[in-house]
Design a protein that fits this description.
Blueprint: H1 2-18, H2 20-26, H3 31-53, H4 57-72, H5 81-92, H6 97-112, H7 119-141, H8 150-167, H9 169-174, H10 182-188, H11 192-196, H12 202-223, H13 231-253, H14 267-276
InterPro entries: Isoprenoid_synthase_dom_sf, Squ/phyt_synthse, Squalene/phytoene_synthase_CS, Trans_IPPS_bact-type, Trans_IPPS_HH
Pfam family, one: SQS_PSY
Protein name: Phytoene synthase
Length: about 280
């Protein structure tokens, strides 16, 4: 019991350190559900870190996939406390195992695919790296309505991932990745050379806004069924959606300067958003 408590604290430290937005939103949950969210986040973070920071990401991801297979057989694959916390979550809830597999596939895409041609391809990628998180969390947040809410949970993940893409254009370029659809850039007459030169002009803004509009329609879709979540889960899901969506407004206010700085919603703005919900 003591070890389990420490395992959950370890997971909480990870989310607190890496995603203040999610941490703030999900702090509103009852304790058991909140801890379960921390454990799922720690799993996702570990896969993400392997791909972005691993010394041999392909081998490390292969090993992690093996660990997850062992975990599903009822074993604790390593002494990492994340597995202990996750085991408790799987014992408590009817978890969607496929979404965990799909998340690993999504992170693996970043090892092989550097360019995305169409909006459809970006949405496919966004499902794998972000919507899967929503599907992992649904059995915790809304166990009775998880099947009805599935499509809108996918939409929320895609909206959040497109927001990440629009915020992290400069950071992704440094890693040799371009998630803005090439077809959209070409249609606007904005070249990859312009992108690499960090040119912010009307052509760039038109592409950015087209993707932002897509994200905003997905946020609307996701929030249309918020009433189907239990009362205690509504505020965290709504909070996460509103806090993330506010990043788009912040970028607009700062003149679309996405190449040199990372945009955040300030703590003051976050508190304001949460209290206005």
């Amino acid at each position: 019991m003591k070890d389990l408590m420490k395992a959950y604290q370890h997971c909480e430290t990870i989310i607190k350190q890496h995603s203040k937005t999610f941490y703030k939103a999900f702090m509103l949950l009852p304790k058991e559900k909140k801890q379960s969210v921390w454990a799922v986040y720690a799993f996702c973070r570990q896969v993400d870190d392997i791909v972005d920071e691993g010394m041999n990401p392909k081998e490390e991801l292969f090993a992690f996939r093996g660990m997850f297979a062992d975990f599903l057989k009822g074993e604790l694959p390593s002494e990492d406390p994340m597995w202990l916390a996750l085991q408790d979550v799987f014992n408590r809830y009817e978890m969607d195992v496929q979404s965990f597999h799909d998340m690993i596939v999504g992170q693996e895409m970043d090892l092989y695919k550097k360019l995305y041609n169409s909006e459809e391809e970006v949405l496919h990628y966004s499902y794998h790296v972000a919507s899967t998180v929503g599907l992992m969390l649904l059995p915790i947040l809304a166990p009775k309505n998880k099947d009805i809410l599935r499509e809108d949970a996918i939409a929320l993940g895609q909206a959040m991932q497109i927001t990440n893409i629009l915020r992290d254009i400069g950071e992704d370029l440094e890693r040799g990745r371009i998630y803005l659809p090439i077809e959209m850039l070409e249609k606007a007459g904005y070249s990859l050379d312009d992108l690499n030169k960090h040119i912010v002009n009307n052509k760039f803004i038109s592409v950015w806004e087209e993707m932002a509009t897509k994200a905003e329609s997905l946020y609307e879709q996701a929030l249309s069924t918020i009433h189907l979540y239990p009362i205690h889960s509504r505020a965290p899901v709504k909070g996460a959606a509103h806090l993330y969506r506010a990043i788009l407004g912040s970028i607009r206010k700062k003149g679309y300067s996405v190449f040199k700085k990372k945009h955040y919603v300030s703590s003051e703005e976050k508190n304001q958003i949460i209290t206005q919900m």
